[in-house]
Automatic annotation (TrEMBL), chain A:
Entries under InterPro entries matching the protein: NADH_UbQ_OxRdtase_chain4L/K, NUOK/Mnh_C1-like
Keyword list, A-Z: Cell membrane, Membrane, NAD, Quinone, Translocase, Transmembrane, Transmembrane helix, Transport
Species whose genome carries this gene: Salisediminibacterium halotolerans
Reaction equation(s) it catalyzes: a quinone + NADH + 5 H(+)(in) = a quinol + NAD(+) + 4 H(+)(out)
Function text: NDH-1 shuttles electrons from NADH, via FMN and iron-sulfur (Fe-S) centers, to quinones in the respiratory chain. The immediate electron acceptor for the enzyme in this species is believed to be a menaquinone. Couples the redox reaction to proton translocation (for every two electrons transferred, four hydrogen ions are translocated across the cytoplasmic membrane), and thus conserves the redox energy in a proton gradient.
The gene coding this protein: nuoK
GO biological processes: ATP synthesis coupled electron transport
The protein's name: NADH-quinone oxidoreductase subunit K
Amino acid sequence: MTVPISYFLVLAAVLFCIGLYGVLTRRHLVIVLASIELMLNSVNINLVAFSAIGPYADITGQVFSLFVITVAAAEAAVGLAILIALYRNRDSIDVIKHDLLGTDKEKSVSTLQ
Amino acid sequence: MTAQEIFFIILALIAVTGALLLVLLKPISHRVVSMAFAFMAISGLYFLLGAEFIGIVQIMVYVGAITILFVFGMMMTEHRTIVFERDPRLSHQAIGLISSVSLLGLLIFGILSMDLPQTEGYVGSAEAIGLELYGYFFVAFIGSAFLLTAALIGAIVVARKEAD
């Protein structure tokens, strides 16, 4: 392998930070979930890179990335189900509108009715 | 420059472009498609690293299943007239940008100052993954099976229309 492992680590860091920016600033709920998937994927790149060309190359990293893929699939399914139920009940996909747990009690009660 | 480096640069460019378009584009459907492109490029990186099994699982699960799931999630909700009213907390956008960029800088600084020895690649096979999965990680494997079953049932229960 002629590509150094640092390249893979830097690429994973870039993808992770793009996903983090998406989670923090986007307002559409589907895009927030997609950004979380992107962050999980960048962690997978790290695991597979260390498993293939790391200092202690081993198969364990690939097994771990399989577990991460499993958990990500379960998370996407449940997250999208919650999103659809939320959209049906509150009729909005905007993240900022979903603040029932906020301190502004009067406003939350008024939006419920 | 070897062939591996050229392929790495092409795949990394596709992945980063897809991720950026996922965050920056306007229409939701275009964003989901660019996410699929990023996932495809990441599976190409796995093939480059000699992890074929993980690459194929990535294509099947992410490009096949999760992208379709997101397309359905987009279709079932509001996607045509996305006009959010102006965000009263515009400073949150700036704080998010600053924090993620500074985290990126810290990570890159840490990675480049690390001194990792260069090893000749280790090529794993599906057989080795299966032996490890049914050996040392058996309990975790069964646990992930339970997790998937619970997620399946939970997703159906949460998303179905409540009977009156």
